[in-house]
């Protein structure tokens, strides 16, 4: 059970909630803050004070005063009118993350909602009721209005949810779990949708998967090093210490450990003096991606515990301020940055694939074919990798550099952070497939070299991989192999093989 406090949620805990289906509750201290904040809202309504979103309309309608008898209609109308999302739904894990993150933000006690609203969010998480939320339609300010409106609809007994592997009407799932719809009152609709939880949820899932493939990319690159008789000297610790980047040093260290005991790697001058950059510069390139992932992790963990709605209530209602914490710029930039960094893992991986299959660049059978000429071997696998890398280059164009004014120019600068998060996730998915192709080619190469000469760690990965993708002794429909290998990397890769030092913080991550 993960206890939400509004202030301490971590990516490690989110990994347990999303991938381990761990349940959640709230701390007693957070409930006390929620109650104090709610009392402040009720006083504002009773005294008919002019406060944005409580006794006024929204956006350009902020100057329109609302009668206190109409506050419930105001909140319901807000959800209905803002539920304008289109396109395919977010992955179910993202919907689950959105529920958790929205509850955690409200538990900070600056939003003025009733306890029952947050309880419903937590009940949905614990019952595995995940709203169907369309991916498209958010500008990333004022928060993720459209996606979060679709998240809220099932709380009201409307909309659809994913429940026990099916897509059903929300009332059907709620009825089976004994959960009743709620009616929103003053401030609650606005508090639920005015935030960055869609982009952050998408970002959390993207980061967790990106972190995993970043580790996996190093082990796969190690297999390639053996398949190409790569020069181990380039990973010598002294080389990387004098550069000074801790992440680069850590990648080189892991590569040395993965390849320790290998009789397939070489020393400089033994076969060649230098390797190509895609081999020699693995620590420098992969290390730079790790620098980016560390930056993204920091920003996500701040945003996961942030109050992002508007207005915010301070000092028991004595101070109610309309600000801009819903603006997604910090996450927008982080998502764009992560997309670029992960795309580079695919970029350099594809170059290693080319070196594995191109007979002009190695002494292996052309395209790793069993019968070169009669059979094409891995020739078109490299094409597929190149296509995915090229697609990543278009997806990596920063979403955050664009802004289109909305709400009659009241909201005249927006982040497009949700687009950036969606693109980052697609880049992660594409990169995993490129790495799957490299793994297939590298396994073929090391077996042709002699698997008995492999390092113990890489040999273990080869044996696990061969249960997924068999040796290529003749041409077959390789699409199936690529998909199986990608699924292996996503769900079943032997992550224990990536750990060589439990005290090394760079290894712990989300694994």
From TrEMBL:
Processing and modification events after translation:
Contains an active site 4-methylidene-imidazol-5-one (MIO), which is formed autocatalytically by cyclization and dehydration of residues Ala-Ser-Gly.
Gene3D superfamilies, A to Z: Fumarase/aspartase (Central domain), Fumarase/aspartase (N-terminal domain)
Query: What pathway is this protein said to act in by its record?
Result: Amino-acid degradation; L-histidine degradation into L-glutamate; N-formimidoyl-L-glutamate from L-histidine: step 1/3
The answer on whether this UniProt entry bears the keyword Cytoplasm reads: yes
By its UniProt entry, which SUPFAM superfamilies does this protein fall under? L-aspartase-like
Report the record's Gene Ontology biological process terms. Answer: L-histidine catabolic process to glutamate and formamide; L-histidine catabolic process to glutamate and formate
The record lists the catalysed reaction(s) as: L-histidine = trans-urocanate + NH4(+)
Q: Which UniProt keywords apply?
A: Cytoplasm, Histidine metabolism, Lyase
Annotated GO MF terms: histidine ammonia-lyase activity
| Any Gene Ontology CC annotation | cytoplasm
The record's top EC class is: lyase
Q: Which Pfam families match?
A: Lyase_aromatic (PF00221)
Instruction: Provide the protein's localization.
Output: Cytoplasm
Major localisation: cytoplasm
Which InterPro entries does the protein's record reference? Aromatic_Lyase, Fumarase/histidase_N, HutH, L-Aspartase-like, Phe/His_NH3-lyase_AS
For this chain, the site of the 5-imidazolinone (Ala-Gly) cross-link is 141-143
Residues carrying 2,3-didehydroalanine (Ser):
142
Tell me its EC number(s), please: 4.3.1.3
* Similarity remark: Belongs to the PAL/histidase family.
The name this protein carries in UniProt is Histidine ammonia-lyase
Which organism is this protein's natural source?
A: Exobacillus caeni
């Amino acid at each position: 059970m993960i206890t939400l406090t509004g202030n301490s949620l971590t990516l490690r805990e989110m990994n347990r909630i999303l991938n381990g289906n761990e349940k959640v509750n709230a701390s007693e201290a957070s409930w006390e803050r929620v109650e104090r904040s709610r009392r402040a809202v009720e006083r504002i309504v009773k005294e008919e004070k002019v406060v944005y979103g409580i006794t006024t309309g929204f956006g350009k309608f902020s100057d329109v005063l609302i009668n206190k008898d109409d506050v419930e209609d105001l909140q319901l109308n807000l959800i209905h009118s803002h539920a304008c999302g289109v396109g395919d739904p977010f992955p179910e894990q993202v919907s689950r993350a959105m529920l958790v993150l929205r509850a955690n933000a409200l538990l900070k006690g600056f939003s003025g909602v009733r306890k029952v609203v947050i309880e419903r969010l937590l009940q949905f998480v614990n019952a595995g009721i995940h709203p169907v939320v369309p991916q498209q339609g958010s500008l990333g300010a004022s928060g993720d209005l459209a996606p979060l409106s679709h998240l809220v609809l099932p709380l009201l007994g409307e909309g659809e949810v994913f429940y026990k592997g099916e897509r059903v009407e929300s009332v059907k799932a709620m009825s089976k779990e004994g959960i009743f719809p709620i009616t929103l009152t003053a401030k609650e609709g606005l508090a639920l949708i005015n935030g960055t939880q869609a982009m952050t949820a998408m970002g959390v899932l993207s980061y967790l998967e990106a972190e995993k493939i970043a580790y996996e990319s190093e082990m796969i690159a190690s297999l390639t090093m053996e398949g190409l008789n790569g020069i181990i000297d380039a990973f010598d610790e002294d080389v990387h210490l004098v550069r000074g980047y801790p992440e680069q040093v850590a990648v080189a260290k892991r590569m040395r450990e993965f390849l320790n005991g290998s009789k397939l790697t070489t020393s400089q001058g033994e076969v060649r003096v230098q390797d190509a950059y895609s081999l020699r510069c693995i620590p420098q390139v992969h290390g730079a991606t790790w620098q980016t992932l560390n930056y993204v992790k920091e920003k996500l963990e701040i945003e996961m515990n942030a109050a992002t709605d508007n207005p915010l209530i301070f000092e028991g209602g004595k101070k109610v301020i309309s600000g801009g914490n819903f603006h997604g710029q910090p996450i927008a930039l982080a998502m764009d940055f992560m997309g670029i960094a992960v795309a580079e893992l695919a970029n350099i991986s594809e170059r290693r694939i080319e070196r594995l299959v191109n007979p002009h660049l190695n002494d292996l059978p052309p395209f790793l074919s069993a019968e070169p000429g009669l059979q094409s071997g891995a020739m078109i696998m490299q094409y597929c990798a190149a296509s995915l890398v090229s697609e990543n280059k278009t997806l990596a164009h920063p979403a955050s550099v664009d802004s289109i004014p909305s709400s009659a120019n009241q909201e005249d600068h927006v982040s497009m952070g949700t687009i950036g998060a969606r693109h980052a996730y697609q880049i992660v998915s594409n990169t995993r497939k490129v790495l799957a192709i490299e793994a297939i080619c590298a396994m073929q190469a090391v077996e042709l070299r002699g698997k008995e000469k492999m390092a113990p760690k890489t040999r273990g990965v080869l044996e696990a991989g061969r249960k997924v993708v068999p040796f290529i002794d003749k041409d077959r429909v390789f699409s199936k192999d690529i998909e199986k290998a990608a699924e292996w990397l996503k769900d079943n890769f032997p992550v224990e093989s990536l750990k060589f030092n439990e005290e090394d913080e760079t290894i712990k991550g989300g694994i």
